[in-house]
Amino acid sequence: MKRQTDIFVESWPIAGSFTISRGSRTEANVIRVAITQGRVTGQGECVPYARYGEDIGSVKAQIAAVVPALNEGVDREALRSALPPGAARNAVDCALWDLEAKLSGQPAWQLAGLPAPRPVTTAYTISLADPATMAEQAGRAASRELLKVKLGGDGDRERMAAVRAAAPEARIILDANEAWRPDIVQSLLDAARDIGAEMVEQPLPAGEDALLSSLHRSVPVCADESVHVGGDLASLKDRYDCVNIKLDKTGGLTEALLVRQQALDAGFSMMIGCMVGTSLAMAPAMLLTPGAQFADLDGPLLLARDRENGLDYPGSMVAPPKSALWG
User: Fold this and answer.
1) Band of the pLDDT at 64, cuts 50, 70, 90?
2) CA 112 – CA 79 distance, rounded (Å)
3) pLDDT by residue (tens digit) across 76-134?
4) Which CATH number fits domain 3-105: 3.20.20.10, 3.40.50.300, 3.30.390.10, 3.40.50.970?
5) Which CATH superfamily is domain 120-318 in?
């Protein structure tokens, strides 16, 4: 049966602003793909990311280029050859998973041969700012179980201490987004240990992280920008302890499932992460959370509003999606 594929560009306001080492923004610009077959529609969402050379226009053009093939029935495996890893393939791949689940009457986790996802603790992000402002953010979120603290290089020791003082009971993970320099990385890893941080994410720039293999990693270090697909893992084994799997990097759930298994086989711990998007972007990632040490799926909590039938976030947890949303 023929399909119809539609592409929608959407903007979702962020509650306040979201700041990391590469800059700030006040809205999440996403692309939603809807693939309809008969009376059934599957949907997926992606977040184009400038760090990887993407923007709304380029990602929309990539998706538009494969619409004829999608309408003729191309499947997820063929899609891996038709589009490179990245945001465009993610939106299409997740829409195909959703369509298949709805057509078959089976949940996506079952189609993937995975255990049913259960509610998990999700990190809650503290945006990069001066120490006093970050302490204020952390104080407001101090009752949450797990805080993810964005860092930016100089002044990070003071930021860590301020957040820990404001949220003394919270578990803390840190995300430098490639902002640390080789001359400060060891001292900042030691400072992370001193505040009881459980992990530091991507301290050095991707491609400039070989130093990590010779450092004393006083806390576990997680690869984010340094890992996209399974083929990246072999070169990271002596540098990182953990890998952050994001659907917008892998190019969707199909590839992410392969990365997840390869990471488990190689002995990496895992974080399941996200860009700032709506619940539609988070929902497929929930399938990856069994066996992961960390879930960072707080994107909708950072928005001023979420889409209809969004994920439930009871306390510090995130619950699996309802079928009305995805899968």
Assistant:
1) very high
2) 17
3) 999 999 999 999 999 999 999 999 999 999 999 999 999 999 999 999 999 999 999 99
4) 3.30.390.10
5) Enolase-like C-terminal domain (3.20.20.120)
3-state percent helix, strand, coil for the chain, nearest multiple of 5: 35, 20, 40
Q: How far apart are CA 284 and CA 303, in angstroms?
A: 19
User: What's the whole-number average pLDDT of the chain?
Assistant: 96
Q: What are the residue boundaries of the structural domains of the chain, listed by start?
A: 3-105, 120-318
Catalytic residue among 60, 102, 148, 246: 246
CB 35 within 8 A of CB 2: no
One of 148, 150, 237, 249 is an active-site residue; which one? 150
Q: Rounded mean pLDDT of 318-324?
A: 96
Nearest CA among 257, 164, 240, 168 for reference residue 201: 240
Tokens at residue 134, please? 């970050």
Whole-structure pTM value:
0.95
Distance CA 158, CA 168 (A): 15
Say if 3-105 and 120-318 have the same CATH topology: no
Active site residue 150: yes
pLDDT category of residue 23 using cuts at 50, 70 and 90: confident
The helix (H) or strand (E) run that includes residue 82 is helix 76-82
